[in-house]
Amino acid sequence: QVQLVESGGGLVQAGGSLRLSCAASGSIVSILNMGWYRQVPGKQRERVAWISGGSTTIYADFVQGRFTISRDNAKNTMYLEMNSLKVDDTAVYYCAAFGRVASWGQGTQVTVSS
Predict the structure, then answer these.
(1) In the chain, what is the greatest distance between 2 CA atoms, to the nearest angstrom?
(2) Distance in angstroms (rounded) separating the CA atoms of residues 94 and 108
(3) Are 102 and 47 in contact (CB under 8 A)?
(4) Which of 61, 17, 55, 9 is nearest to 35 (CA)?
(5) pLDDT at residue number 27
(6) How many Å separate Cα 96 from the centre of its chain?
(7) Predicted confidence band of residue 31 (pLDDT cuts 50, 70, 90)
(8) Cβ of 102: how many Cβ atoms within 10 Å?
(9) What values do phi and psi take at 3, rounded to 5?
């Protein structure tokens, strides 16, 4: 079992920045890849960014060049640096860890105001 706790969400004006963190605990050795996802009410959860165990990264087109995903294995923590935020980035952001099973955090709200 892997437990994930997100933090760092909040309210920010358009054009601003936020840094999300995802702290992992439990069966850390079972984690291979990790990712950030987001969801708005009435819509499906969508992948924002993904990072492999070897730190290969993949980004959704809508965040390319604005968001940066990273992980610090020594701290068992993953980050999402979000810059040039847009109103459309408003969502609940979830971190996920993938190994034998997928584990999800509880989510953190990001609200971008105009």
Answers:
(1) 42
(2) 7
(3) no
(4) 55
(5) 81
(6) 8
(7) confident
(8) 11
(9) -110, 135
Give the whole-angstrom CA distance, residue 83 versus residue 110. Answer: 13
Residue 58, phi then psi, degrees to nearest 5: -135, 135
Statement: residue 55 has pLDDT above 90:
no
Residues in the chain: 114
Instruction: Please count the other Cβ atoms lying within 10 Å of the Cβ belonging to residue 37.
Output: 21
Which residues contact residue 38 at a Cβ distance below 8 angstroms, ignoring those fewer than 6 apart? 45, 46, 48, 89, 91, 92, 93, 94, 110
* CA-based nearest residue to 21, from 33, 2, 30, 34: 34
Calculate mean pLDDT across residues 49-59.
93
What letter represents residue 9's amino acid?
G
Residues facing residue 11 across a β-bridge: 111
- Has residue 90 got a pLDDT over 80? yes
Q: Report how far apart, in Å, the C-alpha atoms of 66 and of each of 21, 76, 95 are.
A: 17, 24, 18
> pLDDT above 90 covers what percent of the chain?
85
Does residue 32 have a pLDDT over 80? yes
Determine the Cα–Cα distance for residues 113 and 102; give it in Å rounded to an integer.
Answer: 32
